[in-house]
Amino acid sequence: MLAEMLGTALIVGWIMHFMIGAGYGIAFHIIKNILPGESFMIKGVVLGILGWLGMMLMIMPMVGAGVFGVNLGLMAPIMTLMMHIVFGAVLGLVYKKLA
């Protein structure tokens, strides 16, 4: 979707997606103290859900998928939410190990 939205090659979309993921790590470091939750894992999950909401409310409509990606079917918002939760949990756990 990113490559299509940017009107560029698929590899550019993958690179952008990687950069967005790296941005999550930077954002986590900056705002970890204001995120709700007792553990870094929970804080990461919260950040993942916030990222998912941003994607569902801003990015999906911009690429023509509709709010919450409804044009892609019911599984699109459910699966992307699950992926963002897992990503956030792993982000928090890895951050704890490295901090």
Average residue pLDDT: 94
Biggest β-sheet description: none
Q: Which structural category do the helix and sheet elements fall into?
A: mainly alpha
Low-confidence parts: none
Order of helices and strands: HHHH
Number of helices: 4
Query: What gyration radius follows from the Cα positions, in whole Å?
Result: 14 Å
How far apart the termini lie comes to: 34 Å
Overall tally of structural domains: 1
Residue share in helix: over 70%
Proportion of residues in β-strands: under 5%
What would you call the shape? globular
Counting DSSP E segments of at least 2 residues, the number of strands comes to: 0
The quaternary structure here is: single chain
How would you characterize this protein structure?
This protein has helices spanning 2-6, 10-31, 40-62, 75-98. The protein is an all-alpha fold and 99 residues long. The chain contains four helices and no strands. The chain is globular and about 40 Å long.
Protein topology:
Elements: H1 2-6, H2 10-31, H3 40-62, H4 75-98
Entry keywords:
single chain; mainly alpha; 4 helices; 0% strand; globular
Short description:
Helix content is 75%, strand content 0%. It has one domain. The protein is built from 4 helices and no strands.
